[in-house]
Amino acid sequence: MKRVALRRATDQTARYVTAAVSAATSLLVVFIALVLLARSWPIFVARPLGELLFSTTWKPLQSAFGYYPFIMGTLWVTCVAMVIAIPICLLTSIYLAEYASRRVYAIVKPLIDVSAGIPSVIFGIWGVIIVVPLVQKLAASSLGRSLSRLPLFEMHNPTGYSVLAGGVVLAIMVFPVIISVAEEVIRAVPTGLREASWALGATRWQTIKYVVLRHAAPGVLAAIVLGFSRAFGETMAVIMVVGNVPQVPRSLFDAAYPLTALIANNYGEMMSIPLYDAALLGAALLLLVIVLLFNLGARLVLMRMTRYR
Amino acid sequence: MKKLRRLEEHVFRFLMWLSLLIVLGSLVLIVGTMLWRGLPSLSLAMLTQVPKGGYYLGEEGGILNAIVGSLCLAGGATALALLFSLPVAIYLHGYAGRSRTAHLIRLAMDVLWGVPSIVYGAFGFIIMLWLGLRASLLGGIIALACLELPIMVRGMDEALGTVPSALREASYALGATRFETTLKVLLRQAVAGLLTAVLLAFGRGIGDAASVLFTAGYTDRLPDSLFRPVASLPLAVFFQLATPFPAVQQRAYAAGLVLTVIVLAISVMARWLSRRLTRHVVR
């Protein structure tokens, strides 16, 4: 009888302990946000939010902290990455979910999973070795010169360390993120819907276009948003290839200075300048809040779509 | 009309092939580039020596400090993350079931997964300031553990989810408590998947640079204390590539190759283990 009581007590203790640990880890993200807010509070008190977000001057020594060039840098690089990544990822995930034979799938899927684990510095180094020289060559070529008359392609920066290089590297980094989620969502579309469409005489592609994608649209969008937020918060790969010039980029060939790079490059040396530390942590908080909102939205959509097992 | 439909089908099938080729090609290209540029500058001395006097001018020495440092960082972080993620996994599958709480915890983990690693780095740095620590092995471990935690929890969650519920019910029918069932039936059944989750988290931890940038610092010495700075492979790559000397940049390629090989080996091993260990599992 005593043993039963002991076992029951163990069970109850385990329940409370594991529940407490779960609660603590679940609240970690809130805790991180609060800690960042607490440390960056001085900057939000000292400067109006509008000035922080839309001022283009970043001169810590003169106590001017405008995030605008860095926000735009991040947005430019991320958007270029998404423009490249979205069509490629969608087509690949449709192929994997709808067309690929079992054998092809068994080879391709693990490769994509493995590539998700490649460290970001490796992408960065690869960007420096391959992508930057390519962009530089493109900029110097006659194609680049004729392109430079177009608004997004003006040439002020011949080095190759540019928004375009950052976008290409980031695009490749987010491939596995978008593909794995989108593929799962497309696969989850009920077979009956496809069969009904085929029975009406639609081709496979028509079925995909009118039935499968329409059904999977919210999930596919969520996959894209997850990829976007991954690219948005990426640091090391970007910092190595975008050139880090604090300016608002106007062209794909311009250098940029993303928010993440701002934090990584300046942290550690900011202690002696007033408000500098708060301003950098404010940038981190900004980054966190944006990424959190995107993530939360995407995950809620996905949760509703796939209905956790 | 029929012709057009067929044409569309073919065009899109071609585009899909092309996309797949780009995706796989870029992966092959990255690993290939690392081999091509890294192998020539890789030597035994690189792997077995710490940097000596003129190392950063291209003279004697190696990156042993970074290799050992990275293993210590990722190892410590994995152990710390395991300490937290295992209870969460036990709670999710032993107690929470399909309740609202379980959904919320999973959502929190997914969101945590999306937090950029530079934010973990900044967070870790503030925590260190509060604890009165300087850039150190311990600081790096704390930041990396936060990064690894959600990866590990989700991996374990998935692994435990594959255990058939009949097994759990059989255990309950014998009079076992929830905790006993989870510990002795669920965890044992899913041990391969749990190990895979741990290895994948380790692989992610060893490759991350942004979170250890301010928390772990960098040093030319081998790690000797929890409270001293420690070198890491990703930062070795980053710093060496940033120097103006081609000879040192060569070493960044070599360090990058070492890192790539370690990460790929861990990833392949994790998958191989999970296949191998699941052979004797009850389905």
Please explain how this structure is put together.
The complex is a heterodimer of chains A (309) and B (283). Chain A is mostly helical. Chain A has two domains: 1-46; 51-306, MetI-like fold. Chain A has 13 helices and two strands, in the order αααββαααααααααα. Chain A has a two-stranded antiparallel ribbon with strand order 1-2. In chain A, strand 1 and strand 2 (64-65) form a beta hairpin. In chain A, helix 4 (68-99) runs antiparallel to helix 10 (204-233). The longest helix of chain A is centred in the N-terminal third of the chain and has 32 residues, at 68-99. Chain B folds into two domains: 2-41; 55-280, MetI-like fold, CATH 1.10.3720.10. In chain B, helix 3 (64-96) packs across helix 8 (178-189). Chain B starts with a helix and ends in a 6-residue tail after the last helix. Chain B is globular and about 70 Å long. Chain B is built from eleven helices and no strands. Chain B has helices at residues 2-38, 44-48, 64-96, 100-114, 117-131, 137-161, 165-173, 178-189, 191-207, 233-242, 246-277. The model of chain B has no long low-confidence stretch (mean pLDDT 87). Chain B is mostly helical and 283 residues long. Classes of the chains: A mainly alpha (309), B mainly alpha (283). At the A-B interface, helix 1, helix 2, helix 4, helix 5 and helix 6 of A face helix 1, helix 3, helix 4, helix 5 and helix 6 of B.
Radius of gyration of chain B: 23 Å
Distance between the termini of chain A: 38 Å
Number of domains of chain A: 2
Largest sheet of chain B: none
Beta-strand segment tally of chain B: 0
List the helices and strands and how they pair.
The complex is a heterodimer of chains A (309) and B (283).
Chain A: H1 2-26, H2 28-46, H3 49-54, E1 58-59, E2 64-65, H4 68-99, H5 102-116, H6 120-140, H7 142-147, H8 163-187, H9 191-199, H10 204-233, H11 236-241, H12 259-266, H13 276-306
Antiparallel strand pairs in A: 1-2
Chain B: H1 2-38, H2 44-48, H3 64-96, H4 100-114, H5 117-131, H6 137-161, H7 165-173, H8 178-189, H9 191-207, H10 233-242, H11 246-277
